[in-house]
């Protein structure tokens, strides 16, 4: 079997699809944040305070796609982890509606959500020190981000099969967008789908 670290063709579709979605969300929100400055008493200050742990000062030189592929190659996460990481990201945003994903925080959100997902989903995973090296951050920052993220999602880590399949369908729609390029880009991640709503959706399993 080919080594995933040396074989670009082994990257699962879910990694490429999720990176595409987050890149478009980040770019759109970057454009929105370039609007005139808002006074310190506005909701913008609330946004910065809530997401301050994840907010960087400069945009990383590595793209979202390359960063997520790097995580896949070196962290050895199962494809399911990326779907669960996506669900966790959405849960975080649902609990903090003033927070948006942009180029200054998307990388930290990614490494933290994947770390959280792999610990919950996979039987074997690398420790925080290893993930910190993969993510290009310090161990202290990795630990801090993990704790902040867990509190941010209210420690709601369980994912039912119905919810998992619903998010696979969302990512399937993103794959169709990549093929057609006719759908408008989102400004946020898709809203969290309740299990009651998702049971009424047309469920399609994502090929990974």
Task: Give a brief description.
With 208 residues, the protein is mainly alpha-helical. It has helices at residues 13-33, 43-50, 64-75, 79-95, 106-121, 128-135, 139-152, 161-180, 195-198. It holds the Pfam family Cyclin.
Task: Report on the architecture of this protein.
GO terms for molecular function: protein kinase binding. The chain has one domain (11-31, 43-198): Cyclin-like (Cyclin A, domain 1), CATH 1.10.472.10. It is built from nine helices and no strands. It has helices at 13-33, 43-50, 64-75, 79-95, 106-121, 128-135, 139-152, 161-180, 195-198. Helix 6 packs across helix 7. The longest helix has 21 residues, at 13-33. It is globular. The two termini are 17 Å apart.
Per-chain topology:
Blueprint: H1 13-33, H2 43-50, H3 64-75, H4 79-95, H5 106-121, H6 128-135, H7 139-152, H8 161-180, H9 195-198
Helix pairs in contact: 1-3, 1-8, 3-5, 3-6, 4-5, 4-8, 5-6, 5-7, 6-7
The whole-angstrom Rg is: 17 Å
Just give the CATH class: Mainly Alpha
How widely separated are the two ends?
17 Å
In the CATH hierarchy, what is the superfamily? Cyclin-like
Bin the strand percentage.
Answer: under 5%
Give the overall silhouette: globular
What is the helix content?
A: 55-70%
Task: Give me the secondary-structure category.
Answer: mainly alpha
Helix tally?
A: 9
Order of helices and strands: HHHHHHHHH
Number of strands: 0
InterPro entries: Cyclin-like_sf, Cyclin_P/U, Cyclin_PHO80-like
Protein name: Cyclin
Keywords: Cell cycle, Cell division, Cyclin
Family: Belongs to the cyclin family. Cyclin U/P subfamily.
